[in-house]
Amino acid sequence: MKLYDYVLSPSCYKVRLMAALSGVKLEIRPVDFHPGAEHRGPELMALNPEGSIPILEDGDLILTESSAMLGYLAARAAPAWLGSGAPEETARIQQWLSFSHRLTANLGGARLHEMLLRPGDIGALQANGIAALRELEASLFEQKMRGNRFLASDLPTIADIACFPYVALAPDGGVSLDPYPTIRLWSRALRSLDNFIEMPGIHRLHELKPEPRPMPGRGVR
Amino acid sequence: MIDDAMRDEWYPVGLFSRLDRDGRETTLMGGPIKVALDANGAAKVTGENGRVLPVSVRYGHIWSSLGEPKKPVFPIPEADQPGRRFVDVGVVRVRCSPLRAVENFLDIAHFPFVHTDILGSEPHTEVENYKVEIREEEDEVWATQVKFYQPQAAKSASGGITTEYMYRVPAPTCSVLYKTCPPRPGEWDVIALFVQPLAEDLCDVWPWMALFDDETPLTDLIHFQQTIFLQDRSILENQIPRLLPLDPGMEIPTRADLTSVAYRRWLKRHNYTYGAQLVAQ
């Protein structure tokens, strides 16, 4: 499976993260998104007329929507990430997969504006991003009251992976996560999953790193 | 008008390779400027009321100044060395003082914690003694004999090595680092940070590299450097106070901070204070 990838793109990171969590090995094809704008060049436009990345290629299958890629990776290698199939859970997963586009547009748009100087109405992007975060915070809190740590159930699903990156990177776009304790707990729960991987701006949990050992040749105090 | 010696210095204002006739509108030290190609294909920078500003094209970037630079853009002799690949990494905006961006670049101690498993790792956190000086003739800050254990020092490195570094600050918002070059022992890879001050607490950072590496695809080199810099960005945006303190009031430097101490002293000596906090608060 070949992923056309940009290391700083949260949408590309969704796919890398899902692949890592489900044990799928990706062939990474780096795309010079910035400063080269390679995603608007002829080779990639032929694959994806939308001119966006990520693009996932597996034989004849070419996917250009990250939510579809998450569904495909899970179906191939880790079906538990698709949920139990219970009607309400299935509906929640679909609800959050669709919701994730708002995060991409608003928090992602603010991040591109603040970080890579892309045009946009930064006030509106941030305000809409905050509205989305408040909705997410309230929903995660309700889930917690139901005994569920994640968006659709007590187990993580592709819905969590679809929403997590743009939320975690909101501060890159000048939107603070300080007011949202439940979002922060949810982020911790995701970051403590086995085989979790990082991207710039999303750090691993320090306490989950291996315990530092004394330097060779030095006594422990 | 800015009453600061930094007004007469050169600053990066754009990538030459990406410039066209339409140009780009940007900001230099609070004032709007326009950077574009003229009819002859030469770079042109204009300030407020169409004032024509000084222009120089060096190291892949267009440089300009609001004042009157007394010297050409500082030399990087390695930029003329055959066999090197020059990498325009592209701009990243950071909500921090331009001086803070440079200071962070000079720091080694944060490698294991911010660039974990790339430029540093626990428990290899010790910064060994190194030498720092202000070279009077060149009027630059230099740190030499800096050594650090790195799991993946460069895109071209496989496995951990002890990397040797040299740092120099040739201009108030620019730093050039020299580091062990894995494929070519005896030479140094050059990584520069050129910082465009937009305001005292806002900057555009233009990393640039001159490497001996014939194998790694260009995009991989760009992604490697962007990864490193974006790990720094979130730290930089959260530093308090936002301006770089030049008065040693609230901070206690350690031995590992010698380069930063010399940098601040050098800034103070030259009245380079745009983005600095003069009195501890």
Question: What would your notes on this structure say?
Answer:
With 221 residues, chain A is of the alpha+beta class. Helix content of chain A is 48%, strand content 7%. Chain A contains 7 helices and 4 strands, in the order βαβαββααααα. In chain A, helix 1 (10-22) packs across helix 6. Chain B is of the alpha+beta class. Chain B folds into 2 domains: 4-64, N-terminal domain of TfIIb, CATH 2.20.25; 82-277, Naphthalene 1,2-dioxygenase Alpha Subunit, Chain A, domain 1 (Alpha-Beta Complex), CATH 3.90.380.10. In chain B, 16% of the residues lie in helices and 35% in strands. Chain B has helices spanning 98-106, 111-114, 218-236, 258-269; strands spanning 11-15, 24-28, 31-37, 43-46, 52-53, 55-58, 61-64, 85-88, 92-94, 131-135, 140-150, 161-171, 174-180, 188-199, 202-211, 244-245, 276-277. In chain B, the strands form 4 sheets. In chain B, strands 8, 9, 10, 11, 12, 13, 14 and 15 form an 8-stranded antiparallel sheet that branches. The interface between A and B is medium-sized, with 27 and 31 residues. Chain B: It comes from Mesorhizobium caraganae. Chain B: Keywords: Dioxygenase, Oxidoreductase. Chain B: Residues 94-269 form the Vanillate O-demethylase oxygenase-like C-terminal catalytic domain. Chain B: GO terms for molecular function: dioxygenase activity.
Ranges of chain A where pLDDT stays below 50 over 5 or more residues in a row are: none
Nearest-integer average pLDDT of chain A: 94
Radius of gyration of chain B, taken over Cα atoms and rounded to an integer in Å: 18 Å
SSE string of chain B, helix = H, strand = E?
A: EEEEEEEEEHHEEEEEEHEHE
Helix count of chain A, per DSSP?
7
Q: CATH superfamily membership of the largest domain in chain B, which one?
A: Naphthalene 1,2-dioxygenase Alpha Subunit, Chain A, domain 1
CATH topology of the largest domain in chain B: Naphthalene 1,2-dioxygenase Alpha Subunit, Chain A, domain 1
Oligomer: heterodimer
What would you say the CATH architecture of the largest domain in chain B is?
A: Alpha-Beta Complex
- What number is the mean pLDDT of chain B? 93
- Contiguous low-pLDDT stretches of chain B (5 residues minimum) are none
The first-level CATH class name of the largest domain in chain B: Alpha Beta
- In spatial order, strands of the major sheet of chain A run 2-1-3-4
Number of helices of chain B: 4
- SSE topology string of chain A: EHEHEEHHHHH
Number of domains of chain B: 2
Helix content of chain A: 40-55%
InterPro entries (chain B): Cholesterol_7-desaturase, VanA_C_cat
GO molecular function (chain B): dioxygenase activity
Pfam family, one (chain B): VanA_C
Keywords (chain B): Dioxygenase, Oxidoreductase
